[in-house]
Design a protein that fits this description.
single chain; about 260 residues; mainly beta; 8-stranded antiparallel sheet; two-stranded antiparallel sheet; about 5% helix; elongated
């Protein structure tokens, strides 16, 4: 604690001056200020004889990342300071991300629909917590590994694939009402059948049960690409990667069944 008087009661010392206990309670005395641009585009063609295409792109660009936090002064006072993450904190995460997808779909067998496509995920590179980016950490410049190097965490690009099949609602056929005393084939009914004809059988079948059911199979991270190595500072800990931007799960297979009633 460079200025313990700025935070009274948080540092407890024994009579000889050594620190006995530090009370590091969470205090809501700061916030994070970000400025960015979200953008996106989508285009869906009409359905032709060969099917239709569905394209979508969504991205984010962060151009400002500041932190407002309480700082203690040597004279025991305190004040709020705005720290620019790229200059004073040395790390803020990737500033550009986007997701793009292209899918093909076509109606077959009447109301059924088959759909397949690819999704591209991109996360830009970033600097870690021990970087000397823009000369922001001159005091620890000599301690960088290797000395004076900028610690760059590489970008991460993955591709996902998905295919789904949707069972549509069977087309309902409404038969014409036969004339009184005649069956649906136009034959005349005789005797009791003319008064109380037999009811038609059940219309339940496998198509009716599977109506509005979608079966999906997909593979995330087709190429089994590892997240970029981040071994020094930032949002790393002992994971070896940026835990706020990447995930250790690489290639992943999944199956999904959705039923609408």
């Amino acid at each position: 604690m460079g200025a313990p008087n700025a935070f009274p009661g948080t540092v407890i010392r024994v009579p000889n001056g050594l620190i006995q206990e530090v009370i590091a309670n969470y205090q809501n005395v700061g916030n994070t200020l970000t400025g960015g641009i979200d953008f996106g585009a989508s285009y869906i063609t009409k359905e032709y004889n060969w099917g239709k295409l569905d394209f979508e792109l969504n991205g984010t660009y962060i151009y400002k990342f500041d932190q407002l936090r309480l700082e203690g002064n040597a004279d025991g006072s305190s004040n709020f300071q705005v720290l620019q993450a790229a200059d004073a904190l040395g790390v803020s995460g990737p500033d550009f991300k986007f997701v793009a997808s292209l899918f093909y779909s076509k109606h077959i067998f009447g109301n059924d629909n088959i759909r397949t496509g690819f999704t591209l995920n991109y996360i830009d590179s970033e600097v870690d917590g021990f970087t000397n980016f823009k000369g922001s950490l001159p005091a620890v410049d000599a301690g960088l590994t290797p000395p004076g190097y900028q610690h760059l965490v590489g970008d991460w690009t993955t591709v996902d694939w998905q295919i789904s099949y949707e069972f549509g609602t069977p087309a309902e056929v409404v038969p014409e009402s036969p004339r009184p005393g005649y069956d649906k084939d136009g034959k005349r009914l005789i005797g009791e059948q003319a008064v109380s004809p037999k009811p038609e059988g059940s219309r339940w079948n496998w198509r009716t049960i599977l109506a509005n059911t979608t079966v999906t199979f997909g593979i995330n991270n087709l190429a089994d690409t590892r997240p970029p190595l981040s071994a020094q500072g930032g949002n790393v800990g002992i994971a070896g990667y940026d835990t706020q931007s990447a995930t250790p799960i690489q290639r992943c297979f999944y199956v999904q069944i959705e039923k609408k009633f």
